[in-house]
Amino acid sequence: xxxxxxxxxxxxxxxxxxxxxxxxxxxxxxxxxxxxxxxxxxxxxxxxxxxxxxxxxxxxxxxxxxxxxxxxxxxxxxxxxxxxxxxxxxxxxxxxxxxxxxxxxxxxxxxxxxxxxxxxxxxxxxxxxxxxxxxxxxxxxxxxxxxxxxxxxxxx
Length: 156
Prior knowledge:
Blueprint: H1 54-71, H2 75-86, H3 89-92, E1 95-96, E2 104-105, H4 108-121, H5 126-155
Parallel strand pairs: 1-2
Helix pairs in contact: 1-2, 2-4, 2-5
């Protein structure tokens, strides 16, 4: 007995969608494009002004945090960048996050702020927060251990 003929499932009855009438993209001709010429100015001194109001500090701190997040490649890298931003260099010497291995702990309030900020930008389930923070803490401690050798090479 011959097999029944195969029927096409859904044959399109509507015409295909046409692309919008947009002009074709032209490659840049770098030889004919105008170039931006640098201004002939002399460098000026930067004016350093203290923060004037707490609201300004909060706005500036938020913008710094957002910039750090945009430049960070992972939650661990973000945590290290936050520590570098929140602490002065002398506050990091001879310390680690928890104060183990005969070192002093970092400021608990600032570390709590780092931890909360990491969880804000890298949300995980409550059951995974300990694991995420452990990885961040290890990265911060590694940064603090390796910081001295990096600083010595920079000064040469």
